[in-house]
Design a protein that fits this description.
about 30% strand, about 90 residues, two-stranded antiparallel sheet, 3-stranded antiparallel sheet, about 35% helix, alpha+beta
């Protein structure tokens, strides 16, 4: 079953996370109207989200996302964490 979460960033950008799984995030998709450098970092961010329990705490998820070598343009790691946590609630 797919679960979705989204965050509207104050400057108007949108960050959406769709996860699938039962009690564990089996797959994740990050979408929205933002930019990443390098652009293929999206795959690494999705991999950083995958594998976590639906009971993951904010700090663990934040550390996983921050471990990805990416520059966020129009949003930050907290927005991605917030959208992910909304998706798994």
């Amino acid at each position: 079953m797919d679960h979705r979460g989204s965050v509207k960033v104050p400057d108007g950008k949108l960050v959406e996370v769709t996860v699938s799984g039962d009690r564990r995030i089996e797959s994740a998709q990050v979408t929205g109207d933002f930019f990443l450098e390098p652009p293929d970092a999206r795959t690494d961010l999705e991999a950083a989200i995958e594998g976590h329990s639906f009971e993951v705490d904010r700090e663990t998820l934040l550390e996983a996302i921050e471990s990805v070598d990416a520059r966020f343009i129009g949003f930050d790691t907290d927005h991605l964490v917030e959208a992910t946590l909304e998706a798994i609630e």
